[in-house]
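USER: I would love a firmer grasp of how sequence relates to backbone shape in proteins. This is the protein in question:
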Amino acid sequence: MPNITNVENALTYINKNISKPLNLDIVAKQIFISPTYLSRIFKYDLNINFIDYINISKINLAQEKLIQTDIPIIELSNELGFAQASYFTKLFKRWVHVTPSEYRQKNKNIKSIYTIFRSGLWSHNMSVFEISKRYFANHNIPIKIRKVDSNNYICSINNLENKPNHNSGWIYTVDCLQPTVFSNKLKVNNKSVIQWMYINNH
């Protein structure tokens, strides 16, 4: 079983440098382990392919920037460490199922977004709800929780509350897709990135 310190070191370095070009050799050198061992950490301990983790993390950061800024796609691609905008667009469409331009156009009504990258502190049997609750607490971001039957869900983040009558509120995505279950029912076993988005349709 991989040393948990190596897992934490790898994820910390990647998350801090996600906008730079990254590969196995670069990350392994920075945390003083072999590329082969680093690959094994992701495959066997995190249940994630190394390059998929890098790419999906970059794509999630791209989603955040597409929503919050007017940065041109080519410039955004460069900022995220991609040599070619066409490759960035291809990867984005693979994970999100639309192009970056289409994503920006479709999500103009997203008013706030929080991106939670995986850390070495995630435990396989923890839920998206537990991870998110801990993230917001650690960052001093106030949340409100409601319970429906046996399900807990986050209904307010930083004073932005769900408004069913206005068809506005918080949704969450995991690895770019919106699950169909409550966040307390979904385990983070092989997941990379959680995002919470406030959609305001009023």
